[in-house]
C-alpha cells in the first residue's frame, strides 16, 4: 500500500467537547507484591503532567489504593495513550520495574487490543508492516513513513544541538508490524463497523491507530487520525498483557467494553471466515 500521511487534525466540536475522565475509582485486575495491574479508563493520563488542571491521573489513583509503604516506589512499566483504555501495569519496586522493562525492550511481551473501526475489512485476517515515524509538522502526531527519508541522520560536523534534536525526533520511529483478526461486524450509530483483534509485534507510538488508517479502517472516535464522528471516546482497548516475569509469568486481561448491550448503539454479529491480506 502506498504511504500516505494521516489527515491534518483540525479542531472540531467533537474534539473540543471531549473532556478528561473525572473517574476517581479504578478496577484492580491483578496484584502481587511486585506488580499491580488496573483497568485504565479512557481519556486519562497514566501519570501526572504539567498543566493538567487538577484532572485525575491513573498513577495517583493507583498509588492511593496501595499501602503507604509501597506508594513512593510505584512506577509504570509501559505506555498507554491518553485515549486508550484497558490493562495498565505498574511495578511496586525499582527491581520489578526493571524486570518488566527488559521484557518490553527485548520484545518478550505479548499484547492484544480490541478496536472498533469504521468499515468492513477485505479479509478476516490482515497484516500491516508500514513503518512509523514522527510527523515533521506536529510533534504530537506520528505518520506512516520511512524514518531515514523523513528524519535522516545529520553529519558529525552539524551542531550538536541539531544532532541531539534529530535523534530525539527519530526515537519513536522505525519498522512496525501488526496482525489483525476481524472478530465481528455490525453497526454503530447507524454506520457499518467491525470489531478487530490487534496484535502488535512492535511498540511504536500510535502504531495501531496508524496501521488501522493504512488498512482503510480508522478507529471509531480517533480524533487525531480520524474525523469528527460523534463517538464519545476512541474505541481502542488494551485487552490482554502477557510477560515472563515472576514465577510462571504474568497474564492480565481487562473486560471488553465493545460488546452489544454494553456499548449503547452497537450491534455486532460474528465475522465471516475469509482469506488473508496484507498492506
Quick structural summary:
The protein is α+β, with helices and mostly antiparallel strands and 279 residues long.
Give the helices and strands, then pairings:
Layout: H1 13-17, E1 27-31, E2 35-40, H2 58-64, E3 75-76, E4 85-91, H3 94-105, E5 110-118, E6 125-128, E7 132-134, E8 142-144, H4 147-150, H5 160-170, E9 178-188, E10 191-200, H6 207-214, E11 236-243, E12 250-253, E13 266-270, E14 276-278
Parallel strand pairs: 4-11, 6-14
Antiparallel strand pairs: 1-2, 2-4, 3-4, 5-10, 5-11, 6-9, 7-8, 9-10, 9-13, 11-12
Low-confidence segments, given as residue ranges, are 1-16
Rg, rounded, reads: 19 Å
Q: Would you tell me the structural class of the helices and strands?
A: alpha+beta
Strand/helix succession: HEEHEEHEEEEHHEEHEEEE
Distance between the termini: 5 Å
Description of the molecule:
- This protein has 279 residues and is of the alpha+beta class.
- The chain is 17% helix and 29% strand.
- The protein has helices at 13-17, 58-64, 94-105, 147-150, 160-170, 207-214; strands spanning 27-31, 35-40, 75-76, 85-91, 110-118, 125-128, 132-134, 142-144, 178-188, 191-200, 236-243, 250-253, 266-270, 276-278.
- The strands form two sheets. Strands 1, 2, 3, 4, 5, 6, 9, 10, 11, 12, 13 and 14 form a twelve-stranded mixed sheet that branches.
- A hairpin with a 7-residue loop joins strand 7 and strand 8 (142-144).
- The chain is globular and about 50 Å long.
Question: What are the salient characteristics of this protein?
Answer:
alpha+beta; two-stranded antiparallel sheet; globular; disordered N terminus
Amino acid at each position: 500500500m502506498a504511504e500516505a500521511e494521516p489527515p491534518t487534525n483540525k479542531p472540531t466540536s467533537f474534539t473540543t467537547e471531549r473532556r478528561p475522565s473525572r473517574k476517581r475509582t479504578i478496577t484492580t485486575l491483578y496484584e502481587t507484591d511486585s506488580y499491580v495491574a488496573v483497568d485504565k479508563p479512557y481519556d486519562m493520563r497514566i501519570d501526572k503532567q504539567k498543566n493538567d488542571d487538577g484532572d485525575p491521573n491513573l498513577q495517583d489513583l493507583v498509588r492511593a489504593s496501595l499501602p503507604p509503604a509501597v506508594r513512593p516506589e510505584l512506577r509504570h512499566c509501559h505506555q498507554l495513550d491518553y485515549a486508550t483504555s484497558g490493562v495498565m501495569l505498574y511495578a511496586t519496586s525499582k527491581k520489578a520495574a526493571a524486570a518488566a522493562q527488559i521484557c518490553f525492550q527485548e520484545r518478550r511481551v505479548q499484547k492484544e487490543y480490541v478496536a472498533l473501526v469504521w468499515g468492513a475489512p477485505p479479509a478476516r485476517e490482515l497484516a500491516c508492516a508500514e513503518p512509523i515515524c514522527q510527523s515533521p509538522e506536529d510533534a504530537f502526531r506520528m505518520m506512516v513513513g520511512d524514518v531515514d527519508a523523513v528524519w535522516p541522520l545529520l553529519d558529525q560536523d552539524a551542531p550538536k544541538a541539531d544532532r541531539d534534536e534529530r535523534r530525539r525526533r527519530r526515537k519513536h520511529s522505525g519498522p512496525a508490524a501488526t496482525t489483525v483478526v476481524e472478530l465481528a461486524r455490525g453497526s454503530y450509530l447507524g454506520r457499518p463497523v467491525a470489531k478487530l483483534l490487534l496484535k502488535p509485534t512492535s511498540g511504536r507510538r500510535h502504531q495501531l491507530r496508524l496501521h488501522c488508517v493504512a488498512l482503510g479502517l480508522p478507529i471509531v472516535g480517533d480524533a487525531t487520525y480520524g474525523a469528527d464522528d460523534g463517538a464519545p471516546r476512541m474505541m481502542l482497548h488494551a485487552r490482554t498483557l502477557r510477560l515472563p516475569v515472576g514465577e510462571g509469568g504474568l497474564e492480565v486481561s481487562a473486560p471488553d467494553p465493545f460488546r452489544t448491550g454494553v456499548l449503547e448503539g452497537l450491534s455486532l454479529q460474528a465475522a465471516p471466515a475469509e482469506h488473508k491480506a496484507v498492506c
